[in-house]
Amino acid sequence: MYNPNERVVQVAVIGAGVAGLKAASTLVNKLGDAQVVVLEAQDRLGGRILTDTTSSKLGLNYDLGAAWFHDSLTNPVLKEALEEEDKSVFDFEKDAYFDDKDTQFFSSDHDGPIDVASLKINRVSEDLEKFIELYFVESLEVPDSSLEEVNSKFFEKYGKFLTDEQRHYCRNIIRHYELWYGITWDLISGKHAIMDHNGRNLLNKNGYKFLIEKLTSNIPSQSVYTEQQVVSIDRKNKVHDKKVLIQTKQGLRIYCDYIVVTVPQSVLQLKSASEYGITWNPPLPSNITSALESIHFGALGKVIFEFDEVWWDPEEDRFDILADITPGFVASQEIKSPPVPFSYPAFVVNFASVHKEKNLPGGSLVVLTQSPLTQYLESSPASEAWKFYKPMLAKLALPGKNITEPINIIKTNWTNNPYIRGSYAALHTDDDPSELIIQLSGEFDGCGLIDKNIRFAGEHTISDGAGCVHGAYMSGLREADWIINDLSDSISNI
Ligand SMILES: Cc1cc2nc3c(=O)[nH]c(=O)nc-3n(C[C@H](O)[C@H](O)[C@H](O)COP(=O)(O)OP(=O)(O)OC[C@H]3O[C@@H](n4cnc5c(N)ncnc54)[C@H](O)[C@@H]3O)c2cc1C
């Protein structure tokens, strides 16, 4: 008898972020839509891709999660988007924006932008980054230490090469990495901090939503179940001749041969007793549970301030506001009372410059936030964000212009979202960047689960593009291809 709470299929994909949707869309193409279902706990698709098209008072779209195509020379998502004939997917001429200007730097003790060029700040910054790389390359025996500690070592050793001003402004310039990883410099692994990029960053001014729309275009709505929180995965099931039974909190039961688990690492890590954890039967083996502990999860967030007047430089596209040097300040400590402005660095993207051609009746500044500031601001009224950033943003005011009050403040809420719980995988000191990938990517013999029909995808399961949209996308493709291949092998073996 037909039971609306039951489905029997070949493949179930858990999580409808970019990894899950790429896997599902590839599988639907090959196996047909009757054989694939997607289970998503939230009431919307996209996961950490979320383009806000309604909150702006200036008529702009804001990506509250991923916004940039990183590694634009090699980014496969960008490459495919540009190959699309249908320009409504991504119109490069109209919507692409490269962050091709050096950032301006500001500090609490200086009015206007710091003269980076004549003080040769960028040259010192390059030396500092090279020092950090060389420090750990010198010997494999060098233990990991935090970015803050290895930064101090540079100044101990080479501070004498610098001018007073260089020493002053560069002392904690390396903290801008906090706005990449979403964690503070006293936690960031020095060994893994410095990044090499394959090309500039590119923004689709319309937002990343195009990717979710593209990926869902061939998945019929009856194959996608939203508001279905997976609570258990039984991988020794025998009912309906299927190896796996998935159950959701809302009472749905899916029987299938293969699953692709794409929930964030922050969710996979939860104990089964937790309200949002998944109970595995039999439990996940210790090689996987300990790999899940070998890496942390960051908390990058955003606060967007909209103004009816542009009182900052409309031409510069990004601003770095340096944090003050406060001896004894532990940046990662939980924030319990309003934080002091300039205690955390800010990275600001100038949307007045990004959307220059629109002649907007104002402009906006998109400010990135790091843990523990993200948790504090996401749990506080928007006015707290303005209180913290106002004195910092005031530094951007052009001569003769005064900072004005925002007409609108938009904030992210990733740390309070129980199905995301932060931003993406981040390496603390002594974390292992490869163990989780080895255990979950399915690419290494003798690792992961014995049941090869249980697959994992997501930004935390891949090294090329780790933490990024294109990494998540390629991991979804990897798993869909593996299943298609496995199915064709078993058909040809009959
Ligand atoms: C603020 C911020 C800025 C970022 N900026 C960039 C950027 O500029 N460029 C870039 O490339 N990347 C960026 N990223 C990272 C990028 O967004 C992610 O790497 C990528 O979107 C992750 O995709 P995913 O499919 O692995 O995971 P997700 O998108 O998180 O998908 C997992 C899905 O699983 C669902 N789920 C969780 N638990 C359950 C359950 N029990 N049952 C069913 N479903 C469940 C979740 O709701 C979610 O929809 C940013 C992220 C954040 C938060």
From TrEMBL:
TM regions (residue ranges): none
Domain spans labelled Amine oxidase: 18-483
InterPro entries, alphabetized: Amino_oxidase, FAD/NAD-bd_sf, Flavin_monoamine_oxidase
Pfam families (alphabetical): Amino_oxidase
Leader sequence residues: none
GO MF annotation list: polyamine oxidase activity
An annotated GO BP: pantothenate biosynthetic process
Official protein name in the record: Amine oxidase domain-containing protein
Species the sequence originates in: Scheffersomyces stipitis (strain ATCC 58785 / CBS 6054 / NBRC 10063 / NRRL Y-11545)
Lineage of the species this protein comes from: Eukaryota, Fungi, Dikarya, Ascomycota, Saccharomycotina
